[in-house]
Amino acid sequence: MSRLQANLLLLLSGAIWGAGFIAQSTAMESLGPIWFIGLRFAVATAVALPFALFEKTRAPAPTSVGNRLGFVLTGLALFAAAASQQVGLLTTSVTNSGFLTGLYVVFTPILTTFVLRKRPHWVVWPSALTATVGIFLLSGGAFSALSTGDLLTILCAFLWSVQMICVGIFAIRSQRPLALSLVQFAVCAVLGCAIAAAIEPISLAAIRGALFEILYAGFFSSGLAFICQNVAQRYTTAPQAAIFLSSEALFAALFGVLLMGDSITAAGYAGCAIIFVAMLATELVPELEKTKEKRGEAA
């Protein structure tokens, strides 16, 4: 798979998550946030299982214990990120949540640099800042004073960065992205259902009321989108992946207009354009530099 194809897969994940943001918000009208996480990832586990089993039949060797522990660690980061975002939505606006979640675009290259001691391509830094400005404009260009939900969402952005870095490490190291998907989904499903059973009420009526959201988020947002992310990150870096996944904000706005009757301001359209420019720069600048280097060597 080429880096361009990997980035297009990440763009697809961003589109699915953008549409899924609506489902995340409406599901809590009848279901608790942790139950929603547990049930959506139970569906995602069922989706990933046949793919992981097929991958196992073609794997040259069993997955090592170290990689299995890495899969679990990735699942823990994913659960913590999903839980903090979902609970945060109870006490913050969708506008604030959309912008603050997008801060993972900035956190990811910072963590990559200082924790992994890897320097991203120079274009990642201006692209990350540009994408953040675009998300801010798309969110309305303003947000209210920080609430508890906002602080939880900032934590969520940090944890998304941790999850992306873990995927980048263990999907490449193990060469088993589908097994990684299965394990991280199962971790989220078990933790979500266990914790929700202890702290949140549940009923068949509540599940029926949120069934569409559970199935959409489970099959598409959790299952398909994260599988695409895990496969794609074998061929690109976590900081570059973060920039393409930030298209989630762009697609969330688009689906809000198409499905919910929302409107986008002039600043919002400018934000869409800025995010698009950031993604183009991330993809094109490294390729242009490679072409220039090849021409220099040929000369």
UniProtKB/TrEMBL annotation:
InterPro entries: Diverse_Substrate_Transporter, EamA_dom, EmrE-like. It holds the Pfam family EamA. The chain crosses the membrane at residues 33-53, 65-85, 97-116, 123-145, 151-172, 179-199, 205-228, 240-260, 266-285. It comes from the Bacteria. GO terms for cellular component: plasma membrane. It is a multi-pass membrane protein. Keywords: Cell membrane, Membrane, Transmembrane, Transmembrane helix. Residues 6-139, 148-280 form the EamA domain. It is found in: Cell membrane. This is Drug/metabolite transporter (DMT)-like permease. It comes from Mycoplana azooxidifex.
